[in-house]
Amino acid sequence: MLSIVAVVENSEVYQPDARAYQYRHQADLGEYWYYENFPLSVQDVVYFTDHNSSQSYFVLLSAEGDVYHFASPDRFQERIVGAGTTADDSKFYGKMLKISQIGERLYACGAGGQVYVRHGRDDWRMLSDAVLNDPEAKKRLLESGPSLGQPGWKEWIIQKALNPGTREVVFYDIKGLSEDAVYVCGTERAKPVLCFWDGSELYEINIPLAEAALTGIYIENAESVWVCGREGVILHGSRNRGFAPVNADTRLNLFHSITPYRDKLVLPASVRPGGLYELDPSSGEFRRFQPPLPRLMSRDDPESIDDGPFFAQSVGDVLWVVASKDIFRFDGQAWERIKHPDI
Questions:
Q1: Buried b / exposed e across 43-75, counting CB within 10 Å, b at 16+?
Q2: CA geometry: angle at 99 spanning 109 and 171, to 5°?
Q3: How far is CA 175 from CA 151, 197, 222, 256, 299, in A?
Q4: Quick check: 5 and 58 in contact, CB under 8 A?
């Protein structure tokens, strides 16, 4: 079973609108696909195991901090109070971007240095405010400086842009081995940001790169953590021994995530040049996934700027890959293109 969240092409750009699909690969004829519409700007979906109820189900996260649980028999929706930019309770830190299960709990992160943890139903709390943005900082700076056109205004505004007086961290992913060993990654004004939560405090880890946006984390074990990002960045290491770039010809790919598959690490990339890649941790060999991913439908669309794919995840011997208008399933022998009812 696969869950995919999509946007209908003719939707209003600024109107929250999502269609959540579930696909069953083995089902009665005509019953492969199910979908529901949501008035949410959905950013991520996670398969969650609720240890209190012994249920497993999909959970959606919206940009505004809405969390929708496909629980049975009663579904429910929660809110991360303070998250987002438009809700009445929003503190204007920015959009939420990622949700993950670590241990028995759900964690979510996003723009403005936001990191939250769920302690129970309707009980989301800020994990740490160590790198949290102060939305009022820019306003205070502008009020304290010279007016537009006054002597020294240009030099002053340039200096304040370089030193804004508040953090501007955007977190793109959060993963962990346990609730006291959590990694969260992202960027701050083109600089890479990687943090570690030890159960009581959030620490920043030094990254030996001047520029990078870190977008995905895969934790192999406590001393082997993989992080990917823009500009072909792949890092390997741990909080204890530090991180170093992987020396491979990754070009300038924008990697979105890392997933293990048959002793390799699989990385989907959307641009420069984009495609599906694999890294052999034992040899360091980096190449396009073999056998190659089939041609994307968007390649035949002259108006499309998509090079995809954006998502890859392995479950046992099966590898799922999703692009903007394509869904593929690899069973270890051959690729299967999954037909979507709305494409």
A1: bbbbebebeeeeeebbbbbbbbbbbbbbbeeee
A2: 25
A3: 49, 10, 12, 14, 33
A4: no
Taking the CA atoms of 128, 129, 135 and 138 in sequence, report the sign of the dihedral they define. Answer: negative
For Cα atoms 211, 102, 134, give the angle at the middle one, nearest 5 degrees. Answer: 50
User: 183: which 2 tokens?
Assistant: 């990694």
Q: Are 247 and 214 in contact (CB under 8 A)?
A: no
Q: List the structure tokens of 196.
A: 């570690």
Query: Would you state the structure tokens that stand for residue 123, as one six-digit string?
Result: 């009980």
Residue 88: partners with Cβ closer than 8 Å, 6 or more residues away: none
Residue ranges of the alpha helices (H) in the chain?
137-144, 153-162
Q: Is 264:248 a contact under the CB 8 Å cutoff?
A: no
For residue 28, what pLDDT is reported? 73
- In tens, the pLDDT along 237-292 reads 999 999 999 999 999 999 999 999 999 999 999 988 999 999 999 999 999 999 99
159 three-class SS: helix
Q: What is the pTM of this model?
A: 0.91
Instruction: Give the position of tokens 């420069």.
Output: 272
* Below-70 pLDDT ranges, the chain: 29-30, 138-139, 141-143, 157, 160-165, 302-306
The two three-digit tokens of residue 80, written as one number: 């991360």
Pairing of the two strands 181-188 and 191-197: antiparallel
Name, in order, each residue with C-beta under 8 angstroms of 54's C-beta and a sequence gap of 6 or more. Answer: none
Q: Which residues pair with 264 in a beta bridge?
A: 261
